């Protein structure tokens, strides 16, 4: 699962950088918050979680690691797509952004739990 996360993170990295290039070339900074979160929640956070799950397989294989994987990977695209539509004036999507953010937050809570219960313990081989 760590390897899968690293691959997913690399895709976010490319999308995040494309948005950065788009903004720089066009001098339009309206995608700034999407760019920031695709890079930070997608590339940086998922990539780091992937490396952690690879180093500590017990954390990734635990039910909480799997819950984190799914909540983060469902919540983030929802949040980013919603934010994209919001930037384009579709204010009705705000609940979708909120739902995506809540899913990611619950996913990170699950990550916190698996890190504390599976790393630095006798299970962390
Ligand atoms: C080719 C690569 C990149 C380009 C061309 C680029 C370009 C940009 C641009 C044009 C902005 C908007 C600045 C503004 O609103 O004044 C921005 C904001 C931002 N970028 Fe990038 N970026 C790149 C890579 C990255 C990466 C790799 C990360 C993080 C891992 C990152 C994190 C951020 C953050 C957090 C902001 C928001 C800053 C703020 O609102 O104060 N960027 N970037
Ligand atoms: C569920 C998780 C998260 C939610 C719901 C969230 C929400 C937000 C919101 C509402 C803003 C203000 C956006 C604006 O003014 O346009 C913001 C800004 C920002 N957040 Fe997050 N955030 C989350 C996670 C993170 C994480 C994990 C990082 C860093 C690793 C991060 C880094 C930033 C940065 C650098 C900014 C300022 C960039 C900008 O101009 O938009 N956020 N976030």
Automatic annotation (TrEMBL):
Plastid keyword on record: no
Record's keyword terms, sorted: Membrane, Transmembrane, Transmembrane helix
Keyword Acetylation among UniProt keywords: no
Organism encoding this protein: Paenibacillus campinasensis
Parts of the chain that traverse the membrane: 5-25, 37-56, 68-90, 96-116
Protein name per its UniProtKB record: Cytochrome-c oxidase
InterPro entries in UniProt: Cyt_c_oxase-like_su1_sf
């Amino acid at each position: 699962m760590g390897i899968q996360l690293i691959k997913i993170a690399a895709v976010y990295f490319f999308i995040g950088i494309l948005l950065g290039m788009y903004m720089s070339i066009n001098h339009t900074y309206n995608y700034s918050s999407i760019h920031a979160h695709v890079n930070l929640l997608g590339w940086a956070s998922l990539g780091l979680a992937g490396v952690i799950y690879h180093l500590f397989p017990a954390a990734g294989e635990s039910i909480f690691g799997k819950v984190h994987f799914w909540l983060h990977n469902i919540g983030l695209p929802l949040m980013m797509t919603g934010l994209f539509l919001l930037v384009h004036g579709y204010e009705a999507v705000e609940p979708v952004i909120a739902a995506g953010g809540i899913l990611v937050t619950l996913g990170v809570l699950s990550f916190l739990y698996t890190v504390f219960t599976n790393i630095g313990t006798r299970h962390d081989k």
